[in-house]
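Posting this for the archive.
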Amino acid sequence: LQSYVSHENFFQNAPVGAMFQDVFFRVQLDRANPVIMEAPHPKHRATARYEFQYIEQPETPLTDALLELVLRPKIADDEDFAQKIQLFWEFLGVAILGAATNLQKALLVYGGGNNAKSVALEIMEACFPSEVVTHVLPQDMQNEYRLDMLAHSRFNVVEEMPKEELKQSAA
């Protein structure tokens, strides 16, 4: 392992993927078959792993019901409801793979109270090993210490956005 980590930019050049007990789930979009399952190895440069084996397409009835509650408005038909569900799963998947920061996008769930938004965030947060979850407010991203916390984060969750104005950041 020492021979691997002694290289400059060791973690910056890590493959896109997620480490499970039994397999490294690797994604390479430049290939005809972008998903590669590999035996775990230090070359994967994983900073965290899931303490369970990989499961191909698990059933998620409770999560599906929660998404229905959170994402479908209380008014008539929602024309883009299926797209909202798709976005949720895509964002979660990209974050699990450690590639969300490359997109420079955020997922914002907005609305009144008592509609399970915080429960949805808790479910999303539970999808990550605790060592790769951060809680850094956008307003704090100019702070060098706070910014450093994001270096190995795969999921930064902020449950309540402060009312203060966001300042321009070099980050």
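Strands lie at 17-19, 24-27, 35-38, 133-134, 155-156. The longest strand covers residues 24-27.
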